[in-house]
Amino acid sequence: MTRAFLFPGQGAQTIGMGKALADEYPAAKAVFDAVDEALGEKLSALIWEGEQDELTLTRNAQPALMATSMAAMAALEAEGVTIEAASYVAGHSLGEYSALCAAGSLSLADTARLLRTRGEAMQSAVPVGEGAMAALLGLDFETAMRVATAAAEGYVCQAANDNDPGQVVVSGHREAVERAVEIAKGQGAKRAVMLPVSAPFHCELMEPAAEAMAEALSHVDLNAPRVPVVPNVVAAAESSATLLRNHLVDQVTGSVRWRESVMWMAAHGVTETWEIGAGKALTGMVRRIDRALATRQVGTPDEVRAAAAALNEA
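Structure (tokenized):
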């Protein structure tokens, strides 16, 4: 088996995530402690004992999901599984920061602070209510792009997430996105629904957030990764620290090319994906993209032990 480690994005957050890892693995607990220290607050208390609505706030969800993924990585390492067990790493949107942290490009503390900045910048880039996102289900990416173009009518409406062969998310001004929902239904979409998000991510309206991230990233060390990273905006492996930094800035306004990323990894020898952290959204996407790929979720102590045992038997 040739593996890719995948790291989830926003939407996977749940109260209690990572608690069992922290209880069982001191190294996982140390990850949450380090993130708390980097942010100067007890984010772990919110993750484990807080309210879902507060955890879902972009400024909290982004570092919280990264912390949970890194706790799972720490637990894997305690079981003898290092990042070199993967041939590639990739993450969905904010998950790309988790991938870079796991691969040694970014320190844990810097990653936590960058994601707090990213969450706040993305939230504040567009006044609440002016932007929106919608999922178009049952349309391929090319058709979804045509729908977004037709819906724009002078406003911003872009294909933001190419998640899998039948799921594309569009983003932009609310009225344009609402038009896209109606147009998509007429183009044969199985469903077209507005998403409960607080801002229109991954479109031109996020330019102020991209500028904020360019500034923030200019002040941190970003090293060459220990294994190649597949950035969202290029959907092909990259190991240059300079280019990886640039891709993080471009990602804020650019499309998440997840379908293409998974296809690229499969075409370059990957036969199995491990979803590291909270939830199973990426596993579902991978199965819809390429049924030949084996999948594994690694987010609980039992899943960590099972993954390590499977690797040792291979």
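The longest strand covers residues 157-164. The chain is about 50% helix and 15% strand.
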